[in-house]
Structure formats: structure tokens, C-alpha cells
Amino acid sequence: MTTLADELRALPEVTTDPVRSLAARLPGLSAADRDAALALLPSAHRERLAADPALVDALRDALTPAEFATFAAQLMTRVPDGVEQPVSAGGRARTQVARLLQDPDVAARLLKGGSRVVVVPRSEAMTAQDAFRHLRGGLTDDGRPWETVRGAGLRSAAVTEENLLGERTTIPHGEDAQADGYSTTVHEIAHTVHLHGLDPGDQQRVTDAYEATRRLGEAGSWPDGALHSHDADGRRGAPNYSSRDEREFFAQLTGVYLMTNGGFDPYTGLPRHNDGPPWVREHQPDLYPLLRRLYGEGPEPRLRHPRSVAPARPRGVRAAEVNPVDATDVENESLARARALWDVAEGRQGDGDDAYVAVRALWDGTTGTHTPQPHTPAPLPLPHPAPEPPTEPAAAPPPTGGVAQQRLQELWALVDATFGSQPLTQELRNGLFNSLRVIEAARAGHPVSAALWTSTASLGPCCTWHQTHGWTRPGTTTLSPSRAAPTAGAVPTASPPSPPTG
Q: 275-323 pLDDT, tens per residue?
């Protein structure tokens, strides 16, 4: 391998072509250097490497399965313009792709066959991407317009930015997000692996397992839980999504194995299975060896109470890796409140969203929407006379009780009311308070505010002011006044529908 690489690097056509030069060097690079080199490539150069079968075969033979899975994920993943968080979404996508390409033969087959994984921007239709334009105007097998579908598993897989990051889409398709803990990303890549990565023998194993489960009907072990639900009169509802055909059966079973199948089935309304490799080993033993070969050992489920209704989570795997809708909603609300708080404190109008209206009302000590009233502009104040030089070195005595202490308490109440339900540390709350106090003093520009900055005495039993360390509540960490708060070819296969509303 080393001799061949040296010979390739010496060829004139290689030395004048940066892509060929990199391809010749890749087999001999360390994992870190290889990752860094691929990360800097423009998409067109990355595609040239992915389409080079000799390079793919050479690296499959030279790298460990895990290293080759990472290499394949870097070459297969496409993050187009329009993705709002390209670095985060691209990183999450490559991580998930690598999880599903642990079999080097499957990864090489997909690369050489032209399979790619395209991240669809959260605010754009899937059919706006070149790889899926041919679906425009068509319908899925269950009658949904492809323009509203958020994901597909074809020769290339469409995965969405919002599902990777736990965000919400603006494309109307029922719900604006899949269930927390449910990965359409894994689902769609599993379709591509099944249809274009498996050899005929493995595909037949999937078909046989599905048919065996279908023959068992209600007694079968379906990835999405009970085959049917029943209403109060005993009438049977529609079958679950994993029973539709062998493709959905395999994709949902992949989700069970990798513990990315959280939530409820959209047809039965009942919980899906999401219990990892142990469930597959027990309930679908004929496919367990295949999934273990494809995806590795898989995550280990956490121990939980038998009666718990919380979705199963992999041991040691953060929820952020599997469509963290709930956590992202909380984080976005915290950021919106922080932005609104600074808008209000600094006298800016803000954008009028719910967070701004709520904080504006809290700041004004009112309830409801703040509406500025028409008024005659106040005259400009006369300039302050130059201050007399101090006659004594001692600072002015602090205000005791009265307006200053009351305002400090009001600022603390404002921080608590604005962020009371948010997971902020006490240190961060202290920083927010001190930042507000800085803005308040700077905007006021009067002797009482100046006293807040120069005093070294106590402001009463509820608080303590230190000129060099800041004002804190009793029992909390003292922060400096200058410390501001941190800113926080096959039949197209669609993603599962969102749960029905109403």
C-alpha cells in the first residue's frame, strides 16, 4: 500500500491536481489528519473522491471498520445552502450516517453506487433539492404530497435539519416536528441501506422476517408496538406503521435497535418499542445478527422503572443526538427571553414576539401587552454642572431602604419571573441581575444610581453590596459588576407521517 501510494504521488497528473493528490495521500494519513483534510474540501471535490471506486476499495482495506464508516459518512453527507445551522446539522448528520455504516462492505457498496445523504433545510421543501426534484407533484404510497414530506429513503436519503437538531419546520405537513426521541434521519438512512447497501441474501432475510411476523398478526412482535388499537366499542383501528411493508418494518426495527424510535405510532396512537438490541435479540432473533453486523453492538438501554412511561434512552447517549425537540424548545425559549430582556432594559422596541411582550409587562409592573401611548416629546435636559472635587476620600453614603433597595429587589423579581421555569444556574441568574443593574445605573444617570456603584455598605437584610464583588442575594455566589451574562431506483420511501391532530 505504501509503495503504491508513493508511485501515485509521483505521477505528473497527480502533482498538478489537488484532488488526485489528496486521494493518493489519504490511505497513509492518520485519522485526525484525514478528517481535517476532508473537512476542508469543497463539495465538488468531495464528490470526486466519493465517486472514485479505486480509492474507496483502497481505504476499505486499509482502515478499521469504524474509521471507514467515518470516512464514508464524510464523503456521503451533503449540507446544501439554506441550512440555517450547517455546522451543527452537518456534524449530527455525519455522526448518524457513520452509526449505520459499520459494515465496510455495505458502506463501500453505497459509496460506489452513488448513494448520498442530503440535509434538507428546515424552511425548505424536500423537493427543492436537486436529488429529489423528480418527486414534485407526486404522492407517497399513503397519499401525501411529496412537497410536504420531511424525509425520504431512495438511492440517496433526505434527512431534515429540524430532526437532526430538535428544531421545528415551517413547511406545513401536519405537526411541525416529529416526536422527541424519534429520528427520521436514522429511518431514512436505514431505507437506503436496505434497498441499496444490502446484498440479495441479506435483503431476503429481511423479507422472510417481515413475512413471518405478518403471518402472526396481532401476536407478532412489531417494532411500533401493538398491531392495532381498539376504540371503546372494541372496533379495531388501522395497523401500525411498521406493518405496512418490509421496508418500513426494517427501517423501524433499525430505530428500535439504535434506540431512535421514541414516541407513539401515528396510526394506533400507542407507544412504539424503543428498547435497543436486547429487544431485537429477543423478539426478532433472525434479524439480530444482521443488525449487529450493520450497526455494531448498539447502545445499551438505561435501567428504568418497569412502570415508567418515559421514552427509553441509550445509556451514556445524550438526548441531543436523537431529535431533542423538548430540550431545544426550552433552550430557544431561554434565548428568546434573554434577547427580550436586553431589548427592554436598553430601551429598544424589540420585535413584538411573545417573549418581548411578556418581559415588557414584567418590566413595567403590568400585565398584558405593552402599547406605547402618544405623547409630546419631553424637552432635552440641561447639562449637568461639572461636579465639585471631593473634599473627603470617603464614598457617598449608600441609600438605605427606600427607592434604591426597592429597585434592586424589583430587578431580582424580574429575573426570577422571566427565567423562573428555565434551567439556569444561580451563577447565571446572578450574572443576569448584575448586567441589568449596570444597564439600569447607566441609563438613569442620577445620584441614587451613582450611589449604587460607589457604596460599600449594606443595603439591608435581603441583599449585600460590595463595591468590588457586586451585589448578591444571601447564600449565592458573588459576581463582579463587570461580569455580564453569557449568550447562551426503487419505490420512493417516505418518512413516517406526523401524529394526526384533532
A: 999 999 999 999 999 999 999 998 877 766 767 666 666 655 555 578 8
Residue 127: pLDDT over 80: yes
Packing angle, helices 18-25 and 2-10, rounded to 10? 160
Out of 177-181, 358-362, 370-374, 416-420, which region has the weakest mean confidence (pLDDT)? 370-374
Q: Are residues 143 and 230 in the same domain?
A: no
| DSSP H or E segment with residue 158 | strand 157-160
pLDDT of residue 1 exceeding 60, the answer is no
| 310 assigned to some structural domain | no
- Strands 77-78, 117-120: pairing is parallel
**Overall domain count for the chain:** 2
Q: 213 and 79 in one domain?
A: no
Distance CA 241, CA 158 (A): 19
For residue 10, pLDDT over 90 is answered with no
Q: Quick: pLDDT tens for 196-249.
A: 999 999 999 999 999 999 999 999 999 999 999 988 888 899 999 999 999 999
Q: Of 230-239, 250-259, 417-426, give the range with the top mean pLDDT.
A: 250-259
What domain range is 256 assigned to?
198-302+315-323
Give the tens place of pLDDT for each residue, 19-32.
888 888 888 888 89
Nearest to 117 by CA among 83, 166, 144, 67: 83
Question: 323, 353, 368 — which closes off a domain?
Answer: 323
Domain boundary among 294, 323, 352: 323
3-state helix, strand, coil in the chain (%, to 5): 50, 5, 45
Could you give the C-alpha distances from 284 to 27, 278, 289, 290, 408, in angstroms and in order?
39, 10, 10, 11, 63
Whether residue 143 is found in the same domain as residue 236: no
Question: Could you give the count of Cα atoms lying within 13 Å of 340 in the half-sphere of its Cβ?
Answer: 23
Contacts of 63 (CB under 8 A, 6+ apart): 71, 104
CA distances from 8 to 54, 119, 306 (A): 12, 34, 60
Does the global pTM surpass 0.90?
Answer: no
Same-domain status, 206 and 262: yes
Same domain? For 211 and 115 the reply is: no
Strand spans (E) along 194-301 = none
Contact 129, 122 (CB under 8 A): no
Cα separation, 245 vs 205, in Å, equals 14
DSSP string, 392-433: SSSPPPPP-SHHHHHHHHHHHHHHHHHHTTS---HHHHHHHH
Query: 41 and 70 share a domain?
Result: yes
Same domain assignment for residues 203 and 65: no
Residues 51 and 148 in one domain: yes
